[in-house]
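Why does residue order matter? Because the sequence determines the fold. Keep that principle in mind as you read this record.
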Amino acid sequence: MIKPWIFEFFANPDGPDGDPAPRAVADYFRRYLDLWASAEALGFEGIFFSEHHFGAAFSPSPNLLIANMATRTRTLRLGVMGMVLPCYEPWRVCEEIAMLDHLTGGRLEIGTATGIPQELAKVGMPFEEATARSLEALQILDAALSQPVISHHGRFWHFDDLHLVPRPLQQPAPPKWTTVISEESARRSARRGAKICTGFHPLSRVRAIFDAYRDEASRLDHPAAPEQLALRRNVTVDTVQARATAKSEARERALRSGLAADPRVRPLDLPETSHTFSVGDEEFIAGTPESVAEQIIEQCRCVGAGHFLAIFDRHDAPEQVLRTYEIFGQQVIPAMRAFAM
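Structure:
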């Protein structure tokens, strides 16, 4: 079985430099909250929200979206892919995670990330520092998930005997995820016992990253099955093939143009390793429901991923995205869930 998820960017409707009127923003939130709630009945496993700052998206604090969605849903898994740890005090992240796990009734997925270099640069944080902060914060998070009282003495944080309550509802802990784009970060996640998600890269690169994870996990006798691995892709599905292809091609041109125009785009995890964004030919999956299901299944089979995160068109109105949800849920998800990994 391949578990189907939504990856939600929640774009600024007026573009990264836009500043919509407050009433328009309120309406936009309402329409999207209704949209996301509809995913539960359509068979999606859950929603991963993203965290972005300074214009591009309306999710600088995605945990607030999770808290709201917890009241609108009953079975949908909810998480962030991922919380940008360098922006927070890690002990507060631990407390907030536990609260959310209770508010969702044990449906929380813990996703973490170092962040987007160009966003961090706007507040004067070099990416090397952000990486170091993220790694140290993960040490604190992992300790807090395993014990109620923790002490820590590191480069950025020093404390003794912090009593962190409440404890998460899910025990021993909610599932942990990390976004990765390199073999080294995949190995590090395997050592932590965290699941991983990657995208953008061509399949050959994704497979190398997942192989590194499997190798490290096997060495430590940690789980390394498809359940630990997620593939994220841009998806355009339509009942008319030509329409889906044209729309997907436009999305691809926009993404490649945006990356090429920004000289600050660079790796997201370890600057000292030789990796960058690389938009592969397999990044954009488009076509009829049957074709899209075949492409998703084949890509997940090729890399051994048991989860698939679909990025639907961020520029569509919520009502248009709902129609995409419906087509995907009714005609693609059954094939994904029926596939035997």
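The chain has one domain: 3-338.
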